[in-house]
Amino acid sequence: MLRALWAAAAGMKAQQLFVDTIANNLANVNTPGFKKSRVNFQDLLYQTVTIAGSKAPGGGQLPVGIQIGLGVQPVAIEKLFSQGEITETQNPLDIVIEGNGFFQVLQADGNVAFSRDGSFKLDKDGRLTTANGMPLEPEIIIPADAITVSISHDGTVSVLTPGTTTPQEVGKINLAKFINPAGLENLGYNLYRATDASGEAVTGTPGLEGFGAVAQGFLEISNVQVVEEMVNMIIAQRAYEVSSKAIEATDEMLRIANNIRR
After folding, report:
1. Cα–Cα dist 150/92, whole Å
2. What is the pTM of this model?
3. Could you tell me which residues come within 8 angstroms of residue 113 by beta carbon, excluding any fewer than 6 positions away?
4. Is the pLDDT of residue 1 over 90?
């Protein structure tokens, strides 16, 4: 019966992690470019009492063995990179990726990070940066006297300055993609870092070679579905409750056995 205690405890721990993940998804329901997470579980080792196919006491062959499961464990928390809802903002520095790809931003340590958050700002030097001041890679500088900023679907950034009638190109947004985006490491701040699991970043032009096109004046909101997360929370809560009931039942059985008198 001690096996039942540990198996049920493993189930409660697993469901607690499930709820933690759901809570983080719900907390980021309005975070631009946020991608929801999903917990993957697998059963633990089994204690084999009788092997299927072994010889039975009567001389025959056992068609089914006896294996006792020892519980469950989480094996992965996977990011799901499905497209989030797109909302119009009319802000010329808001950019959405329609399809596959990540923006590239330069961190303070000189390493490149990746993001789906297209809510860009201008710093004092006119560079396009994230809300945390990390500039786009490659760098794009908007002149101080720019009247309008235009971003085409292929990532070309053009500005119109006083005294001119033809927009002037000032830079181009390149996107990155990965063979296994679920293998990216979460850094927080809407950023990801490449790992051996994700593979090296492949860069290219928006709208070409499998990259999504970009659109100006729009933002990608989180792909979290509140109703789906609430249903998952109910499922996790009930599973947690059932595991706790198994512990109560095992404890009661141990109490009865402990109180047996001759």
Report:
1. 7
2. 0.88
3. 104, 105, 106, 107, 134, 187, 191, 192, 193
4. no
